[in-house]
Design goal:
single chain, alpha+beta, 5-stranded antiparallel sheet, 5 strands, 31% helix
Length: 135
Amino acid sequence: MIRVIYTEGDCAAWTFPAEPGAVRAARSAVRDQLHRWDLDRLSDLAALLVSELVTNSLRHATGPIEVRLVRPTSLNDVLLVEVSDPLPELPREKDARPEDESGRGLRLVASASRRWGARPGGAGKTVWFELGVPA
């Protein structure tokens, strides 16, 4: 498993309660921050993938959901996005059948991001993905 933790660079972070409005609030926060960083071209994709991960957290966890964006100093062409929740179980990609109403979110994250992963934390887990920043 790849573990990615960047500690230097521009960072923005939010904590949302485990309530249905968290998905909309997280999308909005991500879009606003990417606009401030002049990364509007990543806004739609980042907001979509954050929506998927926050929705997963809402379905399975009961505590606060944290969203963090990082523009690592050492990598000018990467945006790191992390979603953390208090559930320790790491997610797995599933093979959703056509009639299934869920189970496609991680496949979407995997196919639309440069890379993704999950890591356990002291009080839960973090699911992350990287997007390439166009030059």
